[in-house]
């Protein structure tokens, strides 16, 4: 089986609270990374005979080379070690320091030839080259973590070829128009990767996964003008706009196709899901938080997951957890600055071009290999069924999580409009109190086994100015002097 994952997802099989990654991302000059005792997805798959390659974003630590991709299960790596970069210069500005340096490399070595070339194009070419050169008798795991549509630099966050930006003149907002240009290139990348698999006769035995790792940062740091509407909140918040994302799985190996299973799933579930699909026994993975969703995906049956710990961040002062239909939030991020609904779009900006889908390269390939074709009615039906709709005209019950915990029926109320813990009537009070007690007990149990956050202060030893203006594994360098 060939696994192709286009995403920037977790390789972990545990919740962030059990790996020390629950507080904040790894900032550029900080000397820490994902613990080396964590066994990652490529390492597990390699034991099953796979060859694993990573392209694009890493962002799991690099202060020592032992934390970098080729030391953690990947045969090759082409991309950047930090969380973002300029799309053309491939320079990375430190988030809270005056450091800046180059970050594009092949394995451990800087790739200066990449300067002036668009990141999305570079990563697409690398991915398709890997597919073309691959020996089909060996199972392949290809992880493609695009930079797009993440913001680039602070001065120029939205970057795309000008001709692609110009092709969206119907979008009046100039920032959204640039964002569309970035997304067009990401969309083309998916098509090129899919076409490479088809050309190399690999699709019959491929599992193709496309998934986002978080909601768009509509406002605030690294703003990219993406929209999570009508969901509340955005990236780095506990609201659905920050944690609920779109995804799809395509494979001829799925028993039931063209479905919208919408399972309750946590990002840690990808590891056991793909491991099982590869023929592995999930019992061999040991004690993990992830649950295999392969049977749920393949047969369109109910998810085996009942509970998700979204996060416990006692430094910031918030916790969020879901159990079946209900979600509990206590506290929030950024002092509640992003606790609202934003990114609404006017009808004129959301035209859906069905003909473009029907005439796409991917649709043509699917028609060849499936013996049937997409129809306008099926496309519209799938889109309509997957669209989240909320009634903002009804009576809202406000949530002020710094004052009192909030409780939502998240299935009926995905936009988190009605806080059940806001002045519940006598009939509801006992139910709400019982739910809150249950969630507090669950959070207490998670806290007992949680790891301490691993975040540490950045160091001036990381300054790229010391290393030819390049981000490197500085701790190894310092100790080799």
UniProtKB/TrEMBL annotation:
Domain called Sulfatase N-terminal: residue spans: 18-279
**Sorted alphabetically, which keywords does the UniProt record give?**
Calcium, Glycoprotein, Hydrolase, Metal-binding
Q: Which CDD domains match?
A: 4-S
Q: Which Pfam families match?
A: Sulfatase (PF00884)
For whether the record's keyword set contains Calcium, the answer is yes
Q: Give the GO molecular function terms.
A: metal ion binding; sulfuric ester hydrolase activity
InterPro entries assigned to the protein according to its UniProt record, in alphabetical order: Alkaline_phosphatase_core_sf, ARSB, Sulfatase_CS, Sulfatase_N
Is-annotated flag, keyword Metal-binding? yes
Reading the lineage from the top rank, the first entry is Eukaryota
**Names of the cofactor(s):** Ca(2+)
Query: What family does the database annotate?
Result: Belongs to the sulfatase family.
Q: What is this protein called?
A: Sulfatase N-terminal domain-containing protein
